[in-house]
Structure formats: structure tokens, C-alpha cells
Amino acid sequence: MENRDHLLQYTIPQLLRWRVQSTGTKIALREKDLGCWKTYTWEQYYDLVQKTALGLEQLGMKKGDKLALIGDNIPEMLIIAIGTQSLGAISAGIYQTSLPDEIAQMLEYMDVSVVFCDDQEQVDKLVEIRDRVPHVKKVIYEDPRGMRSYQSDDWFLCIDDLYKLGEKIQKQKPEYFDELINQGNPDDTCHFCLTSGTTGLPKAAMLSHRNYINMGVQITKVDALEETDEYLSFLPFAWIGEQMNSFGVAMAIGITINFPESVETSMEDLKEIGPHFMFGAPRIYETIRSQIWLKIDESYWLNKKLYAYFMKIGEKAAQYRMAGRKMPTMLAVLSWLGKILIFKPLINQIGLLRLRRAYTGGAALGPELFTFYQAMAINLKQIYGQTEITGIAYMHRDGDVRPHTVGKPLPETKCKISEKGEILSNSPSVCSGYYKLPEKTKELLKDGWLHSGDAGYIDVNGHLVVIDRVSDVMHNTAGEMFSPMFLENRLKFSPYIKEAIIFGDKKDFVAALINVDPIVVGKWAEDRGISYTTFMDLSGKPEVASLIKEEVTSINQNAEKAHFKIKRFAVLYKLLDMDDGELTKTGKIRREFVQKKYQNLYDALYDKKVNEKEVEAFFQYQDGQTAAVKTKILFYTMNEAA
Fold first, then answer.
1. What CATH number should be reported for the domain whose range is 474-637?
2. What is the pLDDT of residue 112?
């Protein structure tokens, strides 16, 4: 395995230059636009970064200044970010789903002077808050469609004009860019990555070039990724999960990053690319699993029978494969047969046929869902980390995959558990702290260790087991501890359940609000002649409640301890949504916010006399208008035996 430790001496722009010298004509970026794939070699990538940096300098940007990026994943996001870093300035990602008010707060907090937007939708948000962000001197946009009315305003600049500014300097002083990036230090802060903000406004973690490159180098010591590997960039660029691949892995290994036509077409574009490795939050894998189940449900009777049979075979084979043990000959033959007859054609339809390595992180993935993928011979492995440690710090090894754990530390990473059960880490990928938040930084990096805020323990095999957030671990009235996240993951393994919120802290029993999966449950209802109009209507059907009750019963029967059992539940009338503040930008439940928002439902869950309750639901449309609808929520109590 190639040793890449020498790459740690570089900044990201310097490493990009090194890539050009070693593999300059290889494809670095590929983008689908108007149905066609456009490619950029490492040389072309580097040339555009040069023009960007020199153009930004002409606009007045200097070392220490901040540039924010808002938009969908396109090559220009990386080009602008690395161009900014070439000047010693700092890039920062803001989620493209952020509302204008959120953007204004983030721009003010991070002292941003230049903003890059991919299209008119994001530019319009800046126009709306222009008076609130006087420190923003320039807004650069990539897509000129719909921008005609702004072209006479010098607050706006098309990216092509930025390139032209830089090209002039490039021709006048061809050696100047090299001189600029030679001044960079690997330990300089190069990017602000916003935390997920489950308990308030996000904080900006100050990440260095070394943080990113170290993570990329160390992961290759565990999994031998190749320069020829293809990767699909469909996670939000503002999330550390995407940055660690775009900045860290791509630069350290030289993989090709592919950008889909749009967020909506990413799963279809995935089929065209056929990536060799992918990374996604649990929601991605839950969605793919739902697609697989739908394909099987729509298949012929014989295919369903074969799928059920070989899935059981696959689950047995997975236990050997994950443990690195040799399978019995007959099991190996049957497993191979199932892969050829059922699983290979199935995963080919999804676009995962060439997939060698799949990773999931950002939240825990239920052991059942984990085994589901391993049974189909998809090499899915759990990783664990956080924004403040550049995304990955712990991961499974091939032949040592244990579904209930997140694996062992990466090389150069140390782990210990505090007296109160908190996971502490030490690594060259740990950030220097939070921007302008010295007290929060002290709490984060107390005694030289990164304090994760997560509860966990190290098992006898040296694997890290994450229980939940320290603040989220709950205790019932008897003092018995349980993890709401663990129970939520159990519920979400059901194909019919999209999301679940577990309650029970300082209560006599565990209760849940449940979101049904609109696609799977909608198909289930249609197959049985159950008519419905909206998601609210579907969620309120007694037949759907009976279906969910069967799923909860099954989970209760497999509960390790009696106090893990769910005693009461209700089916929520709307999907939890980040635009409504119920989920973070990475899909995590904002538990405290959700409980307060649905306080009347929470209270009814813990009043066994309440079997139904009329509520007024408020919906906000994209144009800002709101509508109120009255609906009836039914509450269900599980049998004591369940």
C-alpha cells in the first residue's frame, strides 16, 4: 500500500499543484449539465483555481478574509473554495436550503466579505437580506439565467468575469500564483465548517489544510482506495461528510469527483457513474433500501420467493464475511448463487454494481439495516466522527465489521472514555476550535482532548460503541437508562417507517411519534384498495395504524429489556422537515424543538385516557403563505404482552 504521509507537508492548493505534476491529464472532476457529462483534468482544475485566486485578489480579497459558498454541488464550489484558500483567505459552506434570515446570521457571525452562489434562487436570498449584510462587498454567481436585472449592479459578478480578471494577472505575472500558494502553511485555517446546530445556531469549526489532508491520508491506510476510483458528490457541500471527500480523500488519493445534474437527479446519475465508493448519511441508505423493497414488491411471485430465500442465505454469509471467517462450502456456493441470480441484477438497477466500499456516518445506522446491505454483499461500513475532527475518526476494517459498533480509531487517532462516559478523541485532524467562541472552544478541547458530547464505551474487541448524545440519553422514573436514538433506529428499519421520535425521559414508559414512509406505505395502501388524497389523509387511516402497530409489536418482542418497549404511539400527520426546524441540515432530529412544537401530542401520549385528539396543523408553502388544517390524531396503546 502506497505511503502518502509526505502529502501532510502541503496545503490544499499546494497539493493540487502536486497532483497536476503527477497526474495532470487525468480527469479530476466530471459534471452532468443538460444531459451531457463535462470533464475537467487536474490541469484544467488547477488553471481555474489560479484564475479564481488572482481574480479574487483583484477584488480586494486578502489573507484572513472570508468567502461563503451557497448552492448545489458543482465543480465551481471546489474551484472557488480552493482559489480562496490560495490567498490565505478562508472559505465557508452554508447549506443551500438555508432561509434568508439564517444566511444573514451566518454571514454576520463569520465576517464574510464575498459570497458565491450557484444560481438565481440563492442570489435572491442575498438580495432580500442585502441591508443586513453591509460587510458583504461582492456576490459572485455561476448560472447567469434569470440574472439580467442584476447585471447593471456592481454588487454582483459573473464567475466568467472573475476568471477574466484572474487571467489578465496570470498572463502578466505567470510566476505570481506559485509565489502566493508557497506562502501557505498546512496548519493555517482554510475552511469554516458549520456544526449541525441541534441545539441552536451552528458554530463554525476552524479547520486547517492538515486536518483535511491527514484524514484523507489515514483513511487510505485502512481502505486502499485507488486513483481510478469514481465518487458521486451528492451530499451538501456545507456538510463535513462531503468536504472530507472533496478536500481530503480526492486530494490525497486523486479520485474523480462526479457532480450530478441536480439534487433531484442524483440517484439516477449514480446509475450512470457506477461509483467505486460512496459515503452517505443513514437516510441515503434507508431511501435506497426502500427502492429495493419496492422493486421486489413489484416483481414476479418467483422473484419474491427467491429474494426471501437468498436474503436469509445472505444474512448467514454476512456473519462470516463481517467477522473475517471462512464460510462453509455449501453456504459459500449458495451465497454466490444468490449474488448472481438476485442481488447483482438488483444492485445494478440502483447503480451500485461497481461499488467496492460504502460508508455511512452522521448518525447511527441500525444493526438490522447494516446487515441488510451486507447480506447483498455490499461492503457497507460504519464510520464515526464529527465536524470538529474532520468527519472520520473511527471506522470498521474489512473482516472486522460489527454492526453495533463504529469500528476502531484511524491511525494517529487516540480514544478514551471519560468518567461520565463521554467519548474523547485526539488526532491531527482535530480542529483548532470555534470561530469567535473562546468559551465553547475551551469546553470542546478541554485537557487536549476533543470532547464529542457523545456517550459510548470501548468493547472487549477494541471497537467503539456509540450510545447516544450525552444530553439525549434518557432515564425513566425508575432510573433505568435507554437511548432514544437506538430505539428510533430500530423503528426505522421497518420499510413502512420513515422517521420516529422517541420520548420517555422521567416518564413511566417509552412513547413514540411516527412518520410513515409515503412511498412504501402509499404503495401498500394502493395494493389493498385503500384510497387516500394527501400524506395527512394516508397517515390517519386506521389500516395504516394497524400496520404500524404490527411493526411496533415486532420491535417490542425483540427488545433486550422490558423498559425498552414502546407502550404508546401516534402516527404524525406531516413529515418532519428541516425547513420547519424539526430536523438539522444533516437530517438529525432536533428533539427538544420537536417536543415543544408537538407538546399537545406529547402530553396526550402520556395520558392513557386519550385515544384521539383534534389538532390544528399549520403548513408553510415556498412562497411564504401559511395554511391551517384541522385533523384528528389517534393514539394507540400496546398490549402489555407485546
1. 3.30.300.30
2. 98
